[in-house]
């Protein structure tokens, strides 16, 4: 047998398993979005991926070790197409951050796909207030409350309330 003989046998042995490992298409439209004081990483499945695909998610802070990606444990092997990136370990919402996701199957992984950075303090979408309205004779009392994620420090938010008599365009 020539010198290439043992290597050729090894390649022939590994070839069938490599053929079964079709690469997975990466997730598409990976986006960080804010809704009701929360931040979510969303994506669409890659075209042609099998039904048993799950996803892994990680996030990265811009200033605190920008080269380090942290796993999002609650979104490891998820079948969902969205992952909340709120209240994560060592997350600093006063820093901009981004997320990434990859498709995973038992035999293959897709490349990671990253979102753009999001600055929580400047890009967060506040939740609409919960209004409790009570009226007694001539007094109309409106109480507006809001719910922050449990990891957020209490904020003194102020809402501007306009009201007017039905049928008129004049605000009071």
TrEMBL record:
Q: Which GO terms describe its molecular function?
A: cytokine receptor activity
Annotated Pfam families: Tissue_fac (PF01108)
Q: Name one GO cellular component term.
A: plasma membrane
Gene3D superfamilies (UniProt xref): Immunoglobulins
Q: Which InterPro entries match?
A: FN3_dom, FN3_sf, Ig-like_fold, Type-II_Cytokine-TF_Rcpt
Q: Which residues form the signal peptide?
A: 1-20
The organism's place on the tree of life at top rank? Eukaryota
Alphabetically ordered keywords of this record? Receptor, Signal
UniProt-recorded name of the protein: Interferon lambda receptor 1
What species is given as this protein's source?
Myotis myotis
Print the organism lineage.
Answer: Eukaryota, Metazoa, Chordata, Craniata, Vertebrata
């Amino acid at each position: 047998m020539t010198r290439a003989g043992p290597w050729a046998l090894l390649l022939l042995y590994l070839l069938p398993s490599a053929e079964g490992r079709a690469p997975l298409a990466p997730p598409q439209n990976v986006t960080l979005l804010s809704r009701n004081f929360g931040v979510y990483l969303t994506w669409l499945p890659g075209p042609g991926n099998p039904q048993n695909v799950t996803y892994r998610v990680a996030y990265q802070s811009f200033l605190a070790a920008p080269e380090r990606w942290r796993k999002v444990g609650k979104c490891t092997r998820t079948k969902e197409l969205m992952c909340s990136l709120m209240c994560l370990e060592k997350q600093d919402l006063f820093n901009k951050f981004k997320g990434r996701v990859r498709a995973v199957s038992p035999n293959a992984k897709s490349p990671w796909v990253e979102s753009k950075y999001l600055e929580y303090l400047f890009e967060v979408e506040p939740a609409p207030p919960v209004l409790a309205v009570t009226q007694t004779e001539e007094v109309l009392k409106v109480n507006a409350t809001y719910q922050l994620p449990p990891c957020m420090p209490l904020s003194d938010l102020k809402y501007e309330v306009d009201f007017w008599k039905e049928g008129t365009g004049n605000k009071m």
